[in-house]
Write a structure and sequence with these properties.
three-stranded mixed sheet, five-stranded mixed sheet, globular, 12 helices, 339 residues, Spore Coat Polysaccharide Biosynthesis Protein SpsA, Chain A, Arc Repressor Mutant, subunit A, alpha/beta
């Protein structure tokens, strides 16, 4: 019998009961529209349900045998035994070098949890079958302009949100998952508790070049949160984060975050944990948790101290030139994610 998640089972059971549209399924399941849509997408991909020309959904009984007593849902025990997904949105032409390869080596060496890797976006030739890859072209949104025909542009923050949304909608990401980047390295033994601790980088009062896309998205995110009487902690800390897929979909739907650029993690954590007092990090010399490498001439003594004492390291294109030699030494052993 095909195993279903709780959400998948709810949707399948309601389709059998006669609810064949997204609108009726939202009402019948008490799930958000985005959660129902994402669940429908995952069920279609697995060919558990089909969609007819009128847009109605039906269960493909040849592909699934429904246990009417227990449903097809995965038990709590089975779910707890499932490796947690580590999701990495990836765009190859924005990588400075082989950061992703070494980030995965660091994960394998230092993440002390049962996990699997899901990468959404571009693919490298060296990816092994151990990586679940979801191919996805860059997401375009309408530019903001006072013009009759706005151009379709790539907004980096909207693109990341779309990649996360697609990974969830595909069914590859369910329940809690870890969101990280190709340029974040775990420097020592790391547990889920380390990742779950809420961390922020001040408030959403500045960021990026004035008038630039990122700066506009910072302001848009702050304005949206303030409009909902929520705090404006800046949760984009360049560290791995623990999120819940259902709650992510709800946040994306609430803020229409696929159509405009928002800082997704700042929307998410301020929305989900409005009373939180996150630990503050900044990646500077005084930060005990995070080291940030944003220039090519960082001294070896400084980098050695970061690698020996801190939990996480991230870098940009310039910083990669500085950290590459030590990263290649510390994480010299190929991981199972390489051919």
């Amino acid at each position: 019998m095909t195993e279903l998640t709780v959400n998948q089972d709810n949707v399948v059971q309601e389709i059998i009961a006669g609810h064949h549209t997204i609108e009726s399924l939202v009402e019948a399941t008490n799930m958000s529209k985005s959660s129902v849509s994402g669940t429908i997408t995952s069920l279609l991909k697995k060919e558990i349900i089909t969609k007819d020309e009128n847009g109605s959904y039906s269960v493909n009984h040849e592909e699934i045998e429904i246990d009417t007593e227990n449903g097809g849902a995965v038990s709590e025990e089975e779910h707890a035994a499932t490796p947690i997904a580590v999701l990495i949105p990836y765009r190859k032409d924005e990588a400075a070098g082989e950061e992703l390869k070494f980030a995965l080596r660091a994960l394998e060496q230092n993440l002390k949890e049962d996990f699997r890797v899901v990468i959404v976006g571009d693919k490298e030739d060296w990816f092994s079958p151990e990586i679940t890859h979801i191919p996805l072209a860059p997401h375009l949104i309408k530019e903001e302009c006072n013009c009759p025909t706005p151009a379709m542009i790539r907004d980096p923050q909207a693109d990341v949100t779309y990649k996360v949304f697609t990974a969830i909608a595909s069914g590859e990401i369910e329940g809690d998952f870890i969101l990280t980047n190709d340029d974040i390295f775990l420097l020592g033994a790391t547990y889920l508790a380390d990742i779950a601790v809420l961390k922020a980088f001040g408030n959403l009062d500045k960021g990026g070049k004035s008038g630039g896309i990122y700066n506009k998205n910072v302001k848009r995110t702050a304005k949206a949160l303030e409009g909902n009487q929520l705090p404006t902690h800046r949760y984009g800390t360049h560290t791995p984060m623990l999120l819940n897929s259902d709650k992510v979909l709800q946040v994306i739907e609430k803020y229409n975050a696929l159509e405009k650029g928002f800082l997704l993690t700042s929307l998410y954590f301020n929305e989900v944990y409005p009373d939180a007092r996150p630990i503050q990090v900044d990646g500077t010399a005084k930060d005990p948790i995070l080291g940030s490498a944003y220039r090519p001439d960082i001294g070896k003594d400084i980098l050695n101290a970061v690698f020996s004492k801190r939990k996480f390291l991230n870098c940009d294109t310039k910083g990669w030139n500085a950290v590459k030699p030590i990263v290649e030494t510390v994480f010299s052993k190929p991981s199972r994610y390489e051919k």
